[in-house]
Amino acid sequence: EAGVLELGSYPGPRMLSPERLALPDYEYLAQRHVLTYMEDAVCQLLENKEDISQYGVARFFTEYFNSVCQGTHILFREFSFIQATPHNRASFLRAFWKCFRTVGKNGDLLTMREYHCLLQLLCPDFPLELTQKAARIVLMDDAMDCLMSFSDFLFAFQIQFYYSEFLESVAAIYQDLLAGKNPNTVIVPTSSSGQHRQRPPLGEASLLEGVEASLFSQCLENLCDRHKYSCPPPALVKEVLSNVQRLTFYGFLVALSKHHGINQALGALPDKGDLMHDPAMDEELERLL
Amino acid sequence: MIPGKYRSVSGRAANNVNCGLHLVIQTSSLPEKSKVEFKLNKETPSFSGRLLQHDLERNYSSRQGDHIHLASSSMPSFPILQRSSEEKILYSDRLTLERQKLTVCPIIDGEEHLRLLNFQHNFITRIQNISNLQRLIFLDLYDNQIEEISGLSTLRSLRVLLLGKNRIKRISNLENLKSLDVLDLHGNQITKIENVSHLCDLRVLNLARNLLSHVDNLSGLDSLTELNLRHNQITFVRDVDNLPCLQRLFLSFNNISTFESVCCLADSSSLSDITFDGNPIAQESWYKHTILQNMMQLRQLDMKRVTEEERRIASVVAKKEEEKKRESHKQSLLKEKKRLTINNVARKWDLQQNRIPNIAPNQDRKVSDSPQDPSQLHGSTVSAFPEETGSLDSGLNNTLQGLSVTDTHLVEVDGDTLSLYGSGALESLDRNWSVQTAGMVTTVSFTFIEFDEIVQVLPKLKIKFPNSLHLKFKETNLVMLQQFNALAQLRRVDQLTIDPQGNPVVNFTLWKYYVLFRLSHFSMQKINGTEVTQNDMIMAERLFGILAHVASSELPQYRLISILGDVRKKQFRYLLETKGKKPGLVNEENSDSKRLVGENTNRATLNYTTRDFYNERLEEIKEKKKFCKMYMEDLVKEATEINMKNEALQKLWPQMFIELVRDAVIEIRNKNSYMKLCLQQITDQK
């Protein structure tokens, strides 16, 4: 959960801990995304001046940060905000699960477009691209009009959405490995690289499908070390890759999406087995009916 | 004095031979009386024609007892006819050779005064040997076997020519018979009326029981009073209006089925008597009044007098028919125009949607040819469509009414349905609709219009057409469930029809349930024609109930208020635009807003902003975001400065503290000097 900076409070002993003092101020704030929330709060305040002024600014801030803690701050917000912090992303995933778990429970299989529609109910400008990428993971890049189950889609979507930047880099690395390039060269992924690239045509080097797992694992380890943005726990990634000799890109993603450990580390969604259970909401539903 | 029983030999014609012939053409044969007896001179072996004497002697008596000598003639095959001189004196001007089993016309010698010649009921195949009878007025060849009209060219005085019941195929060789008064050609095989234009004295023409299929070529018959065309195969009649004297026209038992095929009759001012019985037209329901209406001069129809009452009814009915025809013509024109416009709108829509245009070249041309000015469409027969609703309302009825038709859109009110085609049609909602018209509209249909554009006029729709309960959408680009949120602002929707064509949202499994969920406050009856069941409603709630819960109770209060505020603001934008800012408006807003939020509040936050507005909003927020960022940066800077100072103080404080203590201790080391110093300080202070 995001750490909340309490301005103006008494600097207690935690504030003086060595790790804390070791980080320059801005970095600390950035790591915890404090500024993002502060800016957004002030922006929201400005947006709704007339309404909020009715009941006080202090109450507003309380509500705002409470909702951030509870994960309800992302409801019906624009995509740029939802994507802004890992906590936002996780909250969004959880909200999506909460709201549409009933659809999954009902057993309906939906198309990618329909899932996208549901996403848009919560976030009007959610990009189709992301949903498409998530669908590709489920459908292994095949027959994009196929129906998908709620749980399959949700877990794939989780990986795609939460770790989007990570996956971009992974895709780039994979392409390079396929092409036989030196894995240790630094790859800077651009926004349109990676997953948009077509798979290279089958040549001599790829008589076997995919890439060698151990080599791939090494590259990913480097990647995780190098970059700031959130990536799955490296240990778990290594675990995924240690089980196989070779694997394809989508095979890798599918493995990620199905890994319990990674799901738990993320902390947004319950285990697959418990996906359809939400007693609190079920109670609410019974009350409505 | 001719004895009575002989007087009638030549029919009534005999009595009228001196004055203008008033004939009633009878097809019955004349009474069989013959005063003539033939005798064949058997001593002349060169005769090849034979007469059956024994028959003659059996059937006929001869009062005169004269013998007719048939002498040999220069023409070997023809008998020569001679009458006794007494007969010649008695009946000098008439000769009856009825039922004489003649196969040829005999040579009639020495009878140059003959005025009446009767060859009825014989077997004559050719008209011959009468060229010398140049005084002939009456020639009767009824019931023979004549195949061709010929041999008459010298009979310039001929007035009555009876050729009924023969085998004549063509009307010909009548050129010299300019005095002809009666021409009877009934019962022949004539297929065409021809070669009669010179008969300017002809008063009666009988062509019944022939093979005529049509009637024309009647010019020149300036005296014709009666024309009998019964029992033919006539399908149409022409040129009758060229007959200035025609009074009686008999068309019974032909093949006439429409009035148009005999429409020239209407232009004949002389006609007073007409028959159509036995024609298909006589079976029609509109037969009598159509004829009467078009032929006001008629006195008798089908041999029955035409009464005033009948005439009156006919005119009334005809007027109604005219009205109906005009109306339907107008309707079909409107329909055609509508069809063209819809095609045009559809084409534009397809282009807009970047679909591949699939138009055949001639269709393309047809559409592009439709001119800008609607009144020019279809030539000058179309009157300009009225744009003002005032004039329309006065003629309002339940039939189809095209109100505004241009090339780019179409608005149409048809009783209870308002149909809008093309985005231009949305502007029509601004018009001043009469309360009656608008009140009758229960269904509104949108086609070829972007849903996002429709959303913006929904407030107008709500106000102008308060009874619209059924909405239909076709080719409106409904692509996401969210768009249905926009319909929540309407007062009430009973039925919703989303045509799959052009509305991809229908392909979603859950769309109906979402609609039922979001618009639960409408208690919808039907979606796409199917009844909504209780189970459907329950399923809808089950699927999306939690979404509603989350959207209301889990939203922070300020978000709730801000979202609902947006909704309120949007809905009142229209009112603000029309009413302008008035002092009392604020109160109105508040009271109305309470009513608006009267719908199921837990889903009221689920609304729809069109893509354009959304992006606009985001653009607007950008400025604020920038400011916030700067503001926060300043705050952070301040905070970090303070923090730094704090930290710095923390670091320095122990040292500072020690120094403070040390300074204090040094100061009071010498008690006396310290006391003096303090006192000094106090006095200095004063």
UniProtKB/TrEMBL annotation, chain A:
<keyword id="KW-0206">Cytoskeleton</keyword>
<comment type="subunit">
    <text>Interacts with PCM1. Interacts with TTLL1, TPGS1, TPGS2 and LRRC49; the interactions link CSTPP1 to the complex TPGC. Binds to alpha-tubulin.</text>
</comment>
<dbReference type="GO" id="GO:0034451">
    <property type="term" value="C:centriolar satellite"/>
</dbReference>
<dbReference type="InterPro" id="IPR038968">
    <property type="entry name" value="CSTPP1"/>
</dbReference>
<dbReference type="GO" id="GO:0005874">
    <property type="term" value="C:microtubule"/>
</dbReference>
<keyword id="KW-0597">Phosphoprotein</keyword>
<keyword id="KW-0963">Cytoplasm</keyword>
<comment type="function">
    <text>Regulator of the tubulin polyglutamylase complex (TPGC) that controls cytoskeletal organization, nuclear shape, and cilium disassembly by balancing microtubule and actin assembly. Regulates the assembly and stability of the TPGC and thereby modulates polyglutamylation of the microtubule, which antagonizes MAP4 binding.</text>
</comment>
<protein>
    <recommendedName>
        <fullName>Centriolar satellite-associated tubulin polyglutamylase complex regulator 1</fullName>
    </recommendedName>
</protein>
<keyword id="KW-0493">Microtubule</keyword>
<comment type="similarity">
    <text>Belongs to the CSTPP1 family.</text>
</comment>
TrEMBL record, chain B:
<dbReference type="InterPro" id="IPR050576">
    <property type="entry name" value="Cilia_flagella_integrity"/>
</dbReference>
<keyword id="KW-0677">Repeat</keyword>
<protein>
    <recommendedName>
        <fullName>Leucine-rich repeat-containing protein 49</fullName>
    </recommendedName>
</protein>
<keyword id="KW-0963">Cytoplasm</keyword>
<dbReference type="Pfam" id="PF14580">
    <property type="entry name" value="LRR_9"/>
</dbReference>
<keyword id="KW-0175">Coiled coil</keyword>
<dbReference type="InterPro" id="IPR032675">
    <property type="entry name" value="LRR_dom_sf"/>
</dbReference>
<feature type="coiled-coil region">
    <location>
        <begin position="306"/>
        <end position="339"/>
    </location>
</feature>
<comment type="function">
    <text>Subunit of the tubulin polyglutamylase complex (TPGC). The complex mediates cilia and flagella polyglutamylation which is essential for their biogenesis and motility.</text>
</comment>
<keyword id="KW-0206">Cytoskeleton</keyword>
<dbReference type="GO" id="GO:0005874">
    <property type="term" value="C:microtubule"/>
</dbReference>
<keyword id="KW-0433">Leucine-rich repeat</keyword>
<comment type="subunit">
    <text>Part of the neuronal tubulin polyglutamylase complex which contains TPGS1, TPGS2, TTLL1, LRRC49 and NICN1. Interacts with PCM1; TTLL1, TPGS1, TPGS2 and LRRC49.</text>
</comment>
<dbReference type="Pfam" id="PF12799">
    <property type="entry name" value="LRR_4"/>
</dbReference>
<dbReference type="InterPro" id="IPR025875">
    <property type="entry name" value="Leu-rich_rpt_4"/>
</dbReference>
<feature type="compositionally biased region" description="Polar residues">
    <location>
        <begin position="369"/>
        <end position="383"/>
    </location>
</feature>
<dbReference type="InterPro" id="IPR003591">
    <property type="entry name" value="Leu-rich_rpt_typical-subtyp"/>
</dbReference>
<keyword id="KW-0493">Microtubule</keyword>
<feature type="region of interest" description="Disordered">
    <location>
        <begin position="353"/>
        <end position="391"/>
    </location>
</feature>
<dbReference type="GO" id="GO:0034451">
    <property type="term" value="C:centriolar satellite"/>
</dbReference>
<dbReference type="InterPro" id="IPR001611">
    <property type="entry name" value="Leu-rich_rpt"/>
</dbReference>
